[in-house]
Amino acid sequence: MMRTLPVQALVGALALVLLAACSGSKSEQTQQPVFHAEDNPRLLSAWGMMDSVAGDLKLSDGVIAYDLNAPLFTDYAHKLRTIWMPTEAGPAAYRAGTYLDMPVGTVISKTFYYPKGPGANQVLKQADPDGVLNPILQRLDQVRLMETRLLVHRQAGWEAVSYVWNEEQTDAQLTRIGDAQALTLVEATGAETDFTYIVPDVNQCSGCHAPNNTSREIEPLGVRTRHINKGFVHNDEVVNQLSHLQSIGYLTGWTDSADEPRNASWTDGTVSLDQRARSYLDINCSHCHNPVGPADTSGLDLTVDVETGPALGLCKLPIAAGAGTGGRAFGIDPGAPDQSIFLYRMETTDPGAMMPELGRSLAHAEGAALIRDWIADMDGTCAS
C-alpha cells in the first residue's frame, strides 16, 4: 500500500509553501478576489482567486488553502483547495454534522494538477505529502494544471462552475460540456499507463454535489467538518484548520475539542484498519451512498459512522448493481475480498461497472489494497 511520507522530496522540489502567497506584499499580488453574483466569467482570472507571479501559482489576499483528512481519489491528480469569503458577508457558522454554514459570496476552489513527466502528455504518479506539511504553491514549469472547479454561494444557493487550463498555463477557460485529455501516468518504477483525464460537465458536477436526491440542492462536500478538522501549516506553524479560519474571522462557533468529529487519514498506520477504510469509503462513496442520496436504491450507506452490517455492505445481496457484481454474491464477503462486489467495482475500469462512476478512468491501486485488507480482516460467513 502507498505510504504517506512527511515530505516527499521530489514534490518538495516542485513546490513552495503557501505562506509566501498569503503574506506577500501588495506589489506581488496582481489579482484581488471578485464575487460574481450572477454571470460566470469566461476566464478564471476574472474571479481573482489566484495568479501566476514570477513562475509560481500564488493565491490572492484572503484566499485560504486547506486540506482534507482523506481526499477523494481522482486519477492520482493532486489538488489545491481554497476558501474565500468577502469581508462584508460575515463569518461562516460551525456545524458539526455537515458542512460549514458559509455566507453568500463564498467561493470554494479546487485546482487539479500533476507533476510533469519527462515526455509530452506524461504526468508523474506521486503520493501527496503529509497534510500538515503540504506544500501547495506550485512552480508552473514543473506541474501540469488540468482544471479548476469553483463552488460559488449565490443568493439562490450553491452553483458549480468549471474551468479548463490552457496549454500556456496562463489562465483557464469556462466549460459547461467538460473536457477529455489523453495522458500517460508514469510510476517511480518507470511503468506507464495511458488514460483519459475527464473534466466533468456541469450536470455531472451538480449531480455529485447533490447528496440529497429529493432536494437536489448543491452542497460543498470537502468542507464537511469531519474532513477538515485537522492540522495545516499557517503562518509558520501547524494549527487546526478550523481554528485558523476562526482566528482570521472566517468562522464562528468552533471549539477545538477532542470530541469534535474527525475522519482518519486512510494512509495513517497509527489508527485502526477499520477507521481508515471507513474514512476512505466516506469521502469517495457516501455523497451518493447514503440513505437519501442518488444511490439510495442500492441500500448501501457508506457514511463514516454507519453501523457495521448490511447497510455497510456486509453479506448484502445486490439490489441495483446489474452487471456490476462481477459475478460475486455479496457486497462484502467477510474474509474473502476476491468474492466481494466492493473490491470488484473498485478495481475494474469498465465504465458500466466501476465505482465511483465519475471522476476516474484509472483504478486506485492503493485504495483498493486498503479495502482488500479491511475485508480480509473481517470475521464471519455469509449464508449462501
List the helices and strands and how they pair.
Layout: H1 9-14, E1 15-16, H2 19-23, E2 50-53, E3 56-59, E4 64-66, E5 78-84, E6 92-93, E7 107-115, E8 122-124, E9 137-138, E10 143-154, E11 157-165, E12 172-175, E13 179-186, E14 192-199, H3 202-208, H4 225-228, E15 231-234, E16 237-240, H5 241-247, E17 251-252, H6 273-285, H7 341-347, H8 365-376
Parallel strand pairs: 6-17, 8-13
Antiparallel strand pairs: 1-9, 2-3, 4-5, 5-7, 7-10, 10-11, 11-12, 13-14, 15-16
Characterization of the model:
This protein has helices at residues 9-14, 19-23, 202-208, 225-228, 241-247, 273-285, 341-347, 365-376; strands spanning 15-16, 50-53, 56-59, 64-66, 78-84, 92-93, 107-115, 122-124, 137-138, 143-154, 157-165, 172-175, 179-186, 192-199, 231-234, 237-240, 251-252. With 384 residues, the protein is an alpha+beta fold. The protein has two domains: 9-252, no CATH class; 273-376, no CATH class. The strands form six sheets. It has a six-stranded antiparallel beta sheet, covered by helices on one side. Strands 8-13-14 form a three-stranded mixed beta sheet, with no helix packed on it. A two-stranded antiparallel sheet has the order 1-9. Strand 13 (179-186) and strand 14 (192-199) form a beta hairpin. Helix 6 packs across helix 8 (365-376) and helix 7 (341-347) runs antiparallel to helix 8 (365-376). The protein is globular. The model is unreliable at 1-27 and 130-136 (pLDDT under 50).
Instruction: Give the count of structural domains.
Output: 2
Could you list the spans in which at least 5 consecutive residues all have pLDDT below 50?
A: 1-27, 130-136
Order of helices and strands: HEHEEEEEEEEEEEEEHHEEHEHHH
Which term fits the overall shape? Answer: globular
What is the count of β-strands? 17
Let me know the largest β-sheet.
6 strands, antiparallel
| End-to-end CA span | 31 Å
Radius of gyration: 20 Å
| Structural class estimated from helices and strands | alpha+beta
Q: What percentage of amino acids are in beta strands?
A: 15-25%
Q: Percent range for helical residues?
A: 10-25%
Mean pLDDT figure: 86
Strand order of the largest sheet: 4-5-7-10-11-12
Number of helices: 8
